[in-house]
Design a protein that fits this description.
Elements lengths: L4 H14 L5 H28 L13 H9 L4 H36 L4 H34 L3 H10 L4 H21 L3 H8 L3 H14 L1 H20 L8 H34 L12 H4 L2
Length: 298
């Protein structure tokens, strides 16, 4: 069933209003990330505290970053510590994939049935988190490889500028613009991959192919939804401009905007992206045509 962007946004908003529990995966994701970050901090700092217990007695004791770096580099189990950090980062990435897949699964069910439950989040998360994790790993590799290739022509100028301390302004600006443009274009081209993966139940490679094919067929629609989501996110940030003069008000508004992002913007944008994919990929059936009243009662 094809919907124009205005209709899609309106119906997606109604779906979100009837399913405010769509925010729960994002709340749980933030909570899990905070917990994992705390555990990683303990893992990193525990050996340092046990070897140099006086370093954290007062805030002034850690004013010199070089001292902290020297202590960390002098630890005998630095390799084990790095491995633990890497494992922690991979776990955080996997947890993010789980809740993202769960949120998309809930948005799919809400779009089709009008209602969704946390049971769908758990089922979709279990079914698709590994595939989504691998798909995001592959897209990250694509992103990094492209950034490296774009940087190669500027490597000599950048290295010479760093050695002399006086880099050439022109090549530096061109390099930064190219990197930003590449990252922006790639984010739009690959935006639908998670939704194709969950909605279709695809593997990571097939999901990337399906996401790119979907973009090529629906370039303008993908760009418009991306633009709408960006505009909604930016509008929340612009509301905080009047509070920038007060440090307390700025901190409070940052907290409020973060809450709005988690409770409103993230689930609402997930519904919009999911509905876009489902309508354009034929996953939502056309509503039955209404019979003419005169024919109906013949």
């Amino acid at each position: 069933m094809y919907e124009d962007i205005g209709t899609l946004i309106g119906r997606g908003f109604e779906t979100w209003k009837r399913n405010l529990n769509l925010a729960i995966p994002f709340v749980l994701m933030i909570a899990a990330m905070m917990l994992l970050a705390a555990i990683m901090a303990v893992i990193v700092l525990y050996p340092l505290i046990t070897t140099s217990p006086d370093i954290f007695t007062t805030p002034g004791d850690i004013e010199d970053p070089e001292e902290l770096v020297d202590l960390l580099s002098g630890m005998t189990n630095i390799g084990l510590l790095a491995a633990a950090l890497l494992v922690g980062i991979l776990i955080m990435w996997l947890v993010t994939s789980y809740f993202t897949a769960g949120a998309i699964g809930m948005a799919k069910e809400a779009t089709l049935a009008g209602r969704t439950t946390l049971r769908e989040m758990a089922a979709s998360g279990r079914s698709h988190c590994i595939s989504l994790f691998l798909a995001e790993a592959l897209t990250t590799i694509i992103l990094v490889a492209g950034l490296v290739l774009l940087s190669l022509p500027f490597a000599a100028d950048l290295a010479a500028g760093m050695e002399t301390g006086d880099p050439e302004f022109g090549p530096l600006v061109v390099w930064i613009v190219l990197l930003l443009a590449y990252g922006l274009i790639l984010s739009i081209v690959l935006a639908v991959i998670p939704y194709a993966l969950v909605v279709e139940g695809l593997g990571p490679i097939d999901a990337i192919k399906a996401g790119v094919r979907f973009f090529l067929k629906n370039k303008m629609d993908v760009f418009l939804i991306w633009l709408v989501v960006l505009a909604v996110s930016m509008s929340v940030q612009f509301l905080g401009v009047p509070f920038s003069g007060s440090e307390t008000a700025s901190v409070l508004f940052s907290a409020v905007s973060g809450i709005v992002s988690v409770l409103v913007i993230s689930p609402l944008s997930t519904v919009w992206w999911t509905r876009l994919y489902m309508t354009r990929a034929g996953k939502i059936a056309e509503p039955p045509a209404e019979e003419d009243e005169e024919v109906k009662y013949l």
